[in-house]
Amino acid sequence: MFESLPPGASGAAGSEKIAAACGCMQGKVDAMNGAQLAEVTRQTVQEYQAYKRNPSYQPTLPLSLMNTFKSCARQVAATH
Fold this sequence. Notes:
Layout: H1 15-30, H2 37-53, H3 66-79
Helix pairs in contact: 1-3
């Protein structure tokens, strides 16, 4: 997923940026429970595929991690 997002000012996402974005997302992941995992995965994949087709796509599915991912990736790009 990181390779599909626009790079930050310093270029492509390196391991430091990826680790920072994953850390940013951790709270959202921790809030999930096992019963939600299949639906979270389905919605996230669905929105990631929509994003790949149209990078201006705005995530709307309630359990998808794409909105969190995009937000964290923007935050990391702005600070690294």
